[in-house]
Amino acid sequence: MAYFSKHYHSPGTAPGTLVSTSPSTRPVSIHLIDYTEENVEEERLASPQECQAYLERDTKTWIQVNGPVNVDTLRTLGDMFNLHDLALEDVLNSGQRPKLELYDDQLFLIAAMPILQDDALEIVQVSLFVGKNYLICLCPLEEDPFEPIRKRMRNPSNKRFASRDIDYLLYALLDLITDSAFPVLEAFGDKLEGMELELLEQPRKQTLSDIHRLKRELLFMRRVLWPQRELLTTLMRVEDPLINPDTLIYYRDCHDHSVQIIELLESFRDMATGMLDIYLSSISQRTNETMRVLTIIATIFIPLTFIVGVYGMNFQNPDSPWAMPELAWYYGYPMVWGLMIAITAGLVWFFKRRGWL
Amino acid sequence: MAYFSKHYHSPGTAPGTLVSTSPSTRPVSIHLIDYTEENVEEERLASPQECQAYLERDTKTWIQVNGPVNVDTLRTLGDMFNLHDLALEDVLNSGQRPKLELYDDQLFLIAAMPILQDDALEIVQVSLFVGKNYLICLCPLEEDPFEPIRKRMRNPSNKRFASRDIDYLLYALLDLITDSAFPVLEAFGDKLEGMELELLEQPRKQTLSDIHRLKRELLFMRRVLWPQRELLTTLMRVEDPLINPDTLIYYRDCHDHSVQIIELLESFRDMATGMLDIYLSSISQRTNETMRVLTIIATIFIPLTFIVGVYGMNFQNPDSPWAMPELAWYYGYPMVWGLMIAITAGLVWFFKRRGWL
Amino acid sequence: MAYFSKHYHSPGTAPGTLVSTSPSTRPVSIHLIDYTEENVEEERLASPQECQAYLERDTKTWIQVNGPVNVDTLRTLGDMFNLHDLALEDVLNSGQRPKLELYDDQLFLIAAMPILQDDALEIVQVSLFVGKNYLICLCPLEEDPFEPIRKRMRNPSNKRFASRDIDYLLYALLDLITDSAFPVLEAFGDKLEGMELELLEQPRKQTLSDIHRLKRELLFMRRVLWPQRELLTTLMRVEDPLINPDTLIYYRDCHDHSVQIIELLESFRDMATGMLDIYLSSISQRTNETMRVLTIIATIFIPLTFIVGVYGMNFQNPDSPWAMPELAWYYGYPMVWGLMIAITAGLVWFFKRRGWL
Amino acid sequence: MAYFSKHYHSPGTAPGTLVSTSPSTRPVSIHLIDYTEENVEEERLASPQECQAYLERDTKTWIQVNGPVNVDTLRTLGDMFNLHDLALEDVLNSGQRPKLELYDDQLFLIAAMPILQDDALEIVQVSLFVGKNYLICLCPLEEDPFEPIRKRMRNPSNKRFASRDIDYLLYALLDLITDSAFPVLEAFGDKLEGMELELLEQPRKQTLSDIHRLKRELLFMRRVLWPQRELLTTLMRVEDPLINPDTLIYYRDCHDHSVQIIELLESFRDMATGMLDIYLSSISQRTNETMRVLTIIATIFIPLTFIVGVYGMNFQNPDSPWAMPELAWYYGYPMVWGLMIAITAGLVWFFKRRGWL
Amino acid sequence: MAYFSKHYHSPGTAPGTLVSTSPSTRPVSIHLIDYTEENVEEERLASPQECQAYLERDTKTWIQVNGPVNVDTLRTLGDMFNLHDLALEDVLNSGQRPKLELYDDQLFLIAAMPILQDDALEIVQVSLFVGKNYLICLCPLEEDPFEPIRKRMRNPSNKRFASRDIDYLLYALLDLITDSAFPVLEAFGDKLEGMELELLEQPRKQTLSDIHRLKRELLFMRRVLWPQRELLTTLMRVEDPLINPDTLIYYRDCHDHSVQIIELLESFRDMATGMLDIYLSSISQRTNETMRVLTIIATIFIPLTFIVGVYGMNFQNPDSPWAMPELAWYYGYPMVWGLMIAITAGLVWFFKRRGWL
């Protein structure tokens, strides 16, 4: 995960310039669902032009474009649905902040969907255009994450989509996008728990970089999900004919989840930050213990080594009574041992009293 | 206590899907109190259908459902009292944020009741539905925590419940839920005091994990009680026919307690965070002391050991006057002792001046 | 000072339950001042019932109840002056947040007066009831802290109290309560200065717990004085017939002091928090110095000890020219000394260059 | 980069005093573009007086003054275009906060353009005066940073500039100024990544000062870009005849970028701050490892050295059976080796169990 | 600089009590400027009573009182200009928060002027009373800091003061007071730069207390300048006949400076706080280096000393082939040297690989 993950045009580029950042040569995969109260029609299109037919009908149409979109497709869609240049530019320049733009008879939303790929956080930018009876959703993932919704639509007993306007479909998509943070947070929670255990038991060097990486991921996730929460707040308050008042209760539910996600992120971040302090304290504690072992060993043996050194001296003057007479004493050697045992006992007692042993 | 404690449906699940997270097979325990100004009737029901009879009467009815609720009971209650699907889903998915939903002629509240179980914090999610003349309260605890209120209701001299609308009962329940934070905070305060003493006297490795755990509990408690305070603020300001203006003074009292609880939590958290710094400082202080002991011992004995080493050398050249003549001096040995005592005295004086002894 | 200092009823207790937390058996001490524009009458009453006489007159009456109040006195006063049950409960449950309640023709205030007792911070809860022509002030202290105000009232040349309504008396009391934070803060400032000096000169273990205690006291004081500031803001903005517009300038002055106190508290807290860092840095600096002494001593003597050890070896083979021939050299011993002096000089030069000596 | 980078007049100087801080002697370089819907005229002027001719025509004129401006040029422009004295003073006193001043028929903006020069952040102050049909832009850089815009204007197929009022030109300039933060942030992101790797792998002393420098640059950049964001917010909300409602969508886009830049800055700063903790933890971890090596070596060899010291003692009393009889034992020497090997094995086992080896 | 720098009356003192905190016996120094559009008259008065003459004229009068003011002068001025008692009390009680009081036909301002005295920050409290055609400014400094303004007034070509109302003079004074923070901040910036260099190169014990002192000064300065900024905001928004709309542009300029000063203070404080972390990291780094030197020396020499100790043992049993036969080997001594060189080489290689050498 890069620190700077935004794509941008060189400063001074004209607004609305469309340059693809990942020029893919594969054809686009367009999944279209056309539905009315009676009927749900589903089709896979090869080119964006084929949407034209559905546009003219008086049915609700969901156009799902999966995989990295190329400039041509985008421009075709832009012309067909009258999409604003600045919006199209945002679709291509990934790494945008979630946002909501109100055009005359269109809503443009950028939403951020957090997913885990190979145990690493990735933020997928989903772009949504909503008109009176169509919704275009562009998602750079190859695999369509919105399959669960399509499944609900296909279910003939489920009349919710059919009986409601296109804003209910928008809600369903946004709800899925928002809720996809929960599995990610669950994985993060597990990681935190693992780290916490490791920290208190056996801090390793690796733990430090693990904490750091998680903190970065939390920070990054919060940076994109915070404006997403704002987006949902705005959607709930906006007075736009495209948003029906009776869908609001669903948006409120979605917003509640969004708030809960942010709160979880905040507290995870708090905990991750606190873990660095624990790491430091834990290391200091271990250094202190290491020191104590060294000090005990050294403090006991250094005086003893000195004593045996004394009696290793070679002072010899047969005429002098002062030339290490101890060496010739009858009990000299046992007495030295006695002295050394006494010193050791004294130091052990001293360390015990200090609580070091 | 898990980092991630929320139950959620897999993203893309239809709103209002009811799946029990803890499928209990035991029958539900329903405790019903039906009261008017004159009379208090109390009954234990075996199935939710039996409530029907009370619903039709013009009396105030409190339906208390204890223990983990199963999907069937919930659906029956939902049909009978016309409860919203999204609300029922929230009742089952525990770990929700406290919230207040205003439906047309109903209030739906989720409240969080902190309790201590085996010295560990637990947040119990209490769900409340309030209608014109009924209140349904669902609490996953086996043992009914609201017994004190029932006791007050049974007291014939207490006319408060009887003479007031159902919103006074709601207040009584919310007041009990809010106030149950006080014993928890008292226990936390005692823990903090214990830790503080331990930290300053004798920091152990265990202390570190104790602080960390308490910090997590405080963080967790704050995360759920903060929106609970908001809920009470909203209740005080909401203009809903179900809330009488003359009950407001009681809600205000309850809100005051809630504010005080948050403030206590904040300052406890501040103190717990500060304790990590104290732990670190305390450990560093101890390392410094250990170091000082080692340095004193080593600095005194290392030179002495060197000296006795010198006179342990075996230079012998009978022809040389330079071959360690000291060894043959008459006062050689006492002179060496004199030198060593002088060095020791000098070092002791040096350490005293530095304030190390 | 306890972490958890609030008195509370067990959750589920009926609102307005009066239970004394410190059942004192001593009779209450009631000090009454009855004043008009012409006259100031002062009396000590033995029982609350005696207030009745003054209540009926058209004079301003200040009823000061000192010492821990018992339930009976409170109930008598409550009945006589028509005080709200919830308010009376708050008077008894000490450790309340400062607050202002507006009743129909009465104000109820809880104020927090910080004082120092035996060098420890104590927050005294003063409860005030203000009516059209009476003010009841309950203060749990034995000694009356409001004597300076009484002195001003007795002064016949001071017409301010006499010529103004009861809200001026309220101001005078609140002003004294607010300003009593200044001597406390002055004492704290002195303590901080002392600690700072100690920290930078000679950090002791005791310093750590002193800082911690002061931080707790500052945190605690801020927690109660912050809502007191809000209370004064509300008093300035409230439109209540009991508060005259021309007293507002005095309330504003009092509010200004309150703001200044909070700001001082905040910056004291900032400094106290910063001191922990200084303590840690200071200890680390000392550890580093200790280490340096040890390293210098050890680094110089360890090689020397090795050298003298070499020549303490007993290799002897009269036939071998390799069996420590140095021992038999004519200048062997002085050469060893020369080598050792050279090594010492080299190391001293090395340490000098590193700036360690 | 200096901590204090603002130019100011000595306190008490009259407002509007013009003193150049960097008296350049070179002639000014003025680049003028005069454009209408049909035509784009471009010219380089030698003196500000030559602008006069264009001012009178009914065309849109962009006057770009590059390089450090001198007092005379400024005064000439001031007289010609009726610029306010306080604004001119701000142009000369570099290091101003970005701001927007609304005069009667003129806008005055100070914008901050971050660029990297020799790998160091520099904030260039761009001053803009906007009137009904002219825009004066003063930029202290020698090389014109706005060339990309001029290129777009020269393109005959681009009718945006020609067909819109002068506020579109203002947008284009502000957009370029805002977006020039992206390359700077990209470079900072790369630096952060490098530091992070270094910190976790091999923290050097230099890393500490690198982090510190980056933190200062981030802090500095945030200090000037924060008010720039406010400026753009104000521009979007201001009701001024010079700003057309249909340009607002462009300003909103520019504002969005500005918000994203601030958010990136904030999270970079968070990461940089966290890195100091990682550095400290990393160093502590290394100290702990060093200590462990020392302790293992010392703890193993100190007892061994003591033992060999014991048998280096010279106790000799031919008559005493206590005078180190071990020395004369048949297997004395191998037994000592056995003892020493046993001790070493014991200690190695002890260290293994502690996880130190 | 004291932590608690406020003068206050003992709690319970009557509002408006005037007690001088520094009873000076020197006569007051009053500097009066009386000016109209045509004429500027300047005079030094010996007593406040002499102002009376100017008060009655229809001219603008600036009364500047320098040095510590005594109670009598203040009371005379108070009576003459009808100044409020609470305001006079504030003038005497130095250490007030900057504030603005609107009286009926008068403004009362307290402003804080930061200056450096002997390299230490001092906050001078300037009190200003503004009436229809007079301005009284009381400044406790002996030397008049407002001389630059007087110089501008004396300049006959400068018609700004003469042609405008008294509020322009107020602006000029406030502008000078505000801008006097710039030289102080410039000095602080230089100090920070010096400290930073010292910290990264050679942290000394003194550095710690320098950082701490600077942090305190920044904290203190921010505490008084923050409300000063508010004061200027209020002045810009207040609708008072004493403030003319066309002076507002000047007040806005002054407010801009004030904002910039606060921002600088904040970022200086951030940097000073960060420096403590750098100090700690730097010390830890040094401790680690010291440790490394010790460990290298000890780890190399301790095994060698052990080896030479082995061959210093006195095992002698002429009959035993096990009694240290090495001592009698022909190449015994060179072999020991070979062993020791091999060990040293091995350890040096080990340290190189670890990056310690």
UniProtKB/TrEMBL annotation, chains A, B, C, D, E:
Primary localisation category: membrane
Its membrane topology: Multi-pass membrane protein
Spans annotated as Disordered: 1-24
Record-annotated membrane-spanning stretches: 293-311, 331-351
Compartment(s): Cell membrane; Membrane
Keywords carried by this UniProt record: Cell membrane, Ion transport, Magnesium, Membrane, Transmembrane, Transmembrane helix, Transport
InterPro entries with a match to the protein in the record: CorA_cytoplasmic_dom, CorA_TM1_TM2, Mg/Co-transport_prot_CorA, MgTranspt_CorA/ZnTranspt_ZntB
Organism superkingdom: Bacteria
Pfam families assigned to the protein according to its UniProt record, in alphabetical order: CorA (PF01544)
SUPFAM superfamilies xrefs: CorA soluble domain-like (SSF143865), Magnesium transport protein CorA, transmembrane region (SSF144083)
The family this protein is said to belong to: Belongs to the CorA metal ion transporter (MIT) (TC 1.A.35) family.
Function according to Swiss-Prot or TrEMBL: Mediates influx of magnesium ions.
Protein name: Magnesium transport protein CorA
